[in-house]
Structure to design on (257 residues):
């Protein structure tokens, strides 16, 4: 049965999609059957693994709103162990349409229930908001992974998302856990980045991953080629860092039983 990890932070551009795509690819490279779920109407995770959204007949929108079976929507990728449940811009409309649907926070959970047994990991890429789409992802997930950019407002943003997680734990998903905080786009030469990183580690201790994702140009180039970084430049620091993060996640799971 898959471990479902939701990758969320309401702040835009902090590395959610880069983390979702490259962590998913790294788990798949370790021969873990992995499903990447695109819950963002921007569809960046879908294009990030090379899927041409204009050619899709159906997307996650149909699974959420029309109860279409997800098995028929899932597409393969260049990595044998990595599948994608794609998103297109019409997912933006789902946000409004969900409001009138019964059980509106549980729709993604229902969608994944039928396919969860086919995977070792399911990674959900969330939009930059704490909207109903993100709440659906948190309700469906076992845990939340929070990518965090080491900048001045990072701590403030963090308390907002931790509050949302608490609310979801109270009302919708009691067993939801924080998988951890992963520092992204890290530049060790930058004093502020070092300070923020120290502060996060002091406050959140072992909830912060040991792996730090460096700022690496290969990570930002790979999506324009429709490839996870390990298929674009396996020798890059970016690729090494996400392989390391995947290893840390697999190890944690082994330890937690
Ligand atoms: P959004 O909130 O819009 O969904 P996001 O949180 O998913 O954004 P990304 O799309 O992953 O963030 O990253 C934002 C930008 O930063 C992208 O152009 C991406 O290529 C770049 N980027 C992400 N991580 C790194 C990194 N470690 N090094 C260099 N560039 C990066
Ligand atoms: Mg994104």
């Amino acid at each position: 049965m898959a471990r479902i990890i939701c990758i969320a932070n309401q702040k835009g551009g902090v590395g959610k999609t880069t983390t979702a795509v490259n962590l998913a690819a790294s788990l798949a490279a370790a021969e873990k059957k992995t499903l990447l779920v695109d819950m963002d109407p921007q569809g960046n995770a879908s294009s990030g693994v090379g899927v041409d959204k204009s050619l899709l007949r159906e997307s996650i929108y149909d699974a959420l709103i029309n109860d279409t079976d997800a098995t028929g929507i899932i597409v393969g990728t260049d990595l044998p162990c990595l599948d994608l449940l794609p998103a297109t811009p019409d997912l933006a409309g789902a946000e409004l349409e969900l409001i009138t649907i019964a059980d509106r926070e549980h729709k993604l959970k229902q969608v994944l229930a039928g396919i969860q047994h086919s995977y070792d990991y399911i990674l959900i890429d969330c939009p930059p908001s704490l909207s109903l789409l993100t709440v659906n992802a948190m309700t469906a997930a076992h845990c939340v992974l929070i990518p965090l950019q080491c900048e001045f407002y990072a701590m403030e943003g963090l308390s907002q998302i931790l509050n949302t997680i608490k609310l979801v734990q109270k009302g919708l998903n009691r067993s939801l856990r924080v998988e951890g905080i992963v520092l992204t786009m890290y530049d060790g030469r930058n004093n502020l980045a070092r300070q923020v990183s120290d502060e996060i580690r002091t406050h959140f201790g072992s909830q912060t991953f040991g792996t730090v994702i460096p700022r690496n140009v290969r990570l930002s180039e790979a999506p324009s080629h429709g490839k996870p970084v390990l298929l674009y430049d396996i020798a890059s620091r970016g690729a090494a860092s996400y392989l390391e993060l995947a290893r840390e996640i697999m190890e944690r799971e082994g330890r937690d039983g």
